[in-house]
Amino acid sequence: MTLSPFPAVPLDVKEDLAALPLAEFSQRFAQALAPLIRFALGPTLREHPKWGSRLPYDVAPYGSSPSCGHICRPDIILTPDGPKVCEMDFVPAGRGWLLAALPRKSDRLAVLREFAKWYVSLDSHLVYYATGSVTESKVETDLFAKAMRDMVGFDMRSVNVDADRIDTDGLVDRLFYRSELAQPLTLDHHRVITAEPWLDSKMIFAVVHDRSMTELLEESVGRENLSFLRHTCVESHLVEDVRSPSERGVPGLDDHREWVLKATEVEKYWSWGSRGVVLGKTHTQEQWDEYMRGVSPHQEMLGHRPILQRFMESLDFAGIWNSAIEGSLATSAPERLGRTRDPATGRPAQEAVIGRLGIYFLVSHRAGKVFTSPLGNLCLRQNPLTHMEGDALSMAFRPSAAER
């Protein structure tokens, strides 16, 4: 049964986990990611007359040097037109949730070994998995770091940067923003990933879709990679651009239900957790027009330079939700991660279930390689604003080949 006007996701179970058709996507994204990161960090974009002043390059970096590697977890929506990326998170949570959703030891080992290989490729044999004080992630980092030590023998330590001593002989894997700290940061002499906070800006989506940037992007990331990114990354525009007469030919621009507004600032308290997101379909035309003109009473949450992103309808995951409720598929027990269980997560789906998927891509600039987690996170919620709230289910999935 589907509760959505869109098709249901086929229930394909392989070795206790839902199998979802992302194997080909994963391979293509891994190929395009490193060139995109180099472009975003390099002088070509930083010195661009338009985009150089739109991306938040003025935000101070972390640590003593540029990142020797990067971790990226794209937020993926399965649509009738295939996988679509709506965000790219370079400070991603969820590793503990992923481990907690894996009933098989062999699967947990496969994930942990991929991370260990990545760290070793960065010439790092001691890693501090760091959170701040204003966070809900410390229980998760404790779980993941302990598993790295106990199961694969890798020296990873979960720390609070506000309270714990961090020696300079280890790599700091950052799971915090400055807005989550209780006191000024003191990591100026440490190696940190991700050191460049502007990578988390959603502005890169508007850059990718800027047709005037085609030649420059093809030179920087490659024609094939650009074609893949434009097809896969959700169509996005700078709001200040679509206000101009030259951009009013964007298809569907007049129907606010087809669009989402997103903040592009980083390091703000509204920069994560879907705080700086406005769904057109959940607002009136009048409210939407206020946001577009920059005069909404809640405009602060969108920052100074929001983007307009086309709303992507997800396939319906109600079948997978109900299989989890019946006990056929494992979920991450929220109690293990310091959360309480919402009663809604124990009942069959009453509405369409939206899925947001994530796979960890681990870029090693030293080795010139991208490691990829063999299993991914699946967040399910009966709400189009899908992220890990109390009424969401957290699961794991296996990327599989798409049916031909």
What does this structure look like?
The mean pLDDT is 91. The protein has helices at residues 23-41, 43-46, 51-54, 95-100, 105-121, 138-152, 203-208, 214-221, 223-232, 239-242, 285-293, 318-325, and strands at 13-14, 17-20, 69-79, 82-89, 126-131, 155-160, 171-174, 191-193, 236-238, 259-262, 277-279, 307-310, 354-358, 361-364, 369-372, 376-381, 393-399. α1 (23-41) crosses α9 and α8 crosses α9. 27% of the residues lie in helices and 21% in strands. With 404 residues, the protein is α+β, with helices and mostly antiparallel strands. It contains twelve helices and 17 strands.
Mean pLDDT: 91
> In terms of per-residue confidence, which ranges show pLDDT below 50 for 5 or more consecutive residues?
none
Number of helices in the DSSP assignment = 12
Task: Report the major sheet.
Answer: 9 strands, mixed
Termini separation comes to 23 Å
Per DSSP E runs of 2 or more residues, the count of β-strands stands at 17
Share in β-strands: 15-25%
Helix and strand composition category: alpha+beta
Q: Helix and strand string, N-terminal first?
A: EEHHHEEHHEHEEEHHHEHEEHEHEEEEE
User: Cα-atom Rg, whole angstroms?
Assistant: 21 Å
- Gross morphology: globular
Amount of helix = 25-40%
